[in-house]
Design a protein that fits this description.
Layout (H helix, E strand, L loop, with lengths): L1 H14 L5 H10 L6 H10 L3 E4 L5 E4 L8 H12 E7 L2 E6 L4 H11 L4 E6 L3 E6 L2 H15 L1
Antiparallel strand pairs: 1-2, 3-4, 4-6, 5-6
Helix pairs in contact: 4-5
């Protein structure tokens, strides 16, 4: 059932612009899948869905394609599109993003494995990165600001 549902998610994301988890859950229900918000959220995380700019403005979910392109290049491009700034604060880095994209950006930052960063916590438009020490936080903030320029 899970693999069929995830195949359906891939097809839906190729066919239409879906901007929220709620829209995705409703689309799955409309084609016969009985899903909860939690199930959709787990599927999205397992599938490593990303948000990309949509033709109508705003952002929509997409399945990352790795054929012919380095994933870290894709992550960098996505981060550049949704992050606004990064600032070190002691052993933390505070990253500001456009509204609704902090979770996706935090996962991308985790995947980039920035040296000295231990983990992340994301809200709607803010990410807190825990650093090993203040020097690591400062270096990570510099690296993130360099990425988004």
């Amino acid at each position: 059932m899970k693999s069929e549902r995830q195949t359906a998610i891939r097809n839906l994301l190729r066919e239409r612009s879906i901007q929220t988890q709620e829209e995705l859950a409703a689309a799955l229900r409309s084609i016969g899948f009985q899903v909860t918000q939690a199930t959709v959220s787990r599927d999205m995380k397992e599938m490593h869905l990303i948000k990309v700019p949509s033709a109508e403005g705003g952002y929509q979910y997409a399945v990352p394609e790795t054929k012919g392109i380095d994933l870290s290049e894709r992550l960098t491009r996505m981060l550049r599109d949704c992050m606004i700034s990064a600032e070190a604060a002691g052993q933390m880095v505070v990253v500001k993003t456009i509204s609704g994209s902090a979770g996706t950006a935090a996962e991308a930052l985790d995947n980039l494995q920035i040296p000295g960063i231990l983990g992340s916590i994301a809200g709607d438009n803010t990410i807190f990165l825990a650093a090993r020490d203040p020097e690591s936080a400062s270096g990570a903030a510099d690296e993130i600001n360099w990425l988004i320029r």
